[in-house]
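As a warm-up, study this chain.
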Amino acid sequence: MQQHAKPEFIRAEKREGDAELDAHMFRQALAQFATGITIITTKNAEGKYVGVTANSFNSVSLHPPLVLWSLSKKASSHDAFAAATHYGVSVLSADQEDLSHHFSTFKGDRFAGVEVIEGLGGAPLIPHALAHFECKVRSRYDEGDHFIMVGEVLRCDYREGEALVYRSRKYFRN
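Now compare it with the structure written out below.
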């Protein structure tokens, strides 16, 4: 049996008396987890589309079908999502990296020139994504510097294809 060298870990630990765990180290450790990339969308009170790139999307339950995601309380879209009754999730395909960048960095109208499909509750969906989840907001949780939104999936669809994956601040195709 071949012996492998013991991997060296870089460790952060919150010790008694520490205010919190080292934020940089925590982010570095989280970055080792590969995630799919989504664009989460809704309509604000004025009927304008709002959307953000998120990799915090997760399934919660099959019965009933529930999903969750989280958003920084400092995000410009926070108020729109905090008041939303519905939201959409578009799971990006490998050839939609440009949309991921656009919805994570562009400061103006993120939907200007972007084709959409209007989903349930008016939440826009991104065409050609690998999957769509159309959700009714079920609950919100205020935790740390984010809020967590749980949605009941009212409708979903998917297609086969390569996914856009993110790990260690880099995009990959899977």
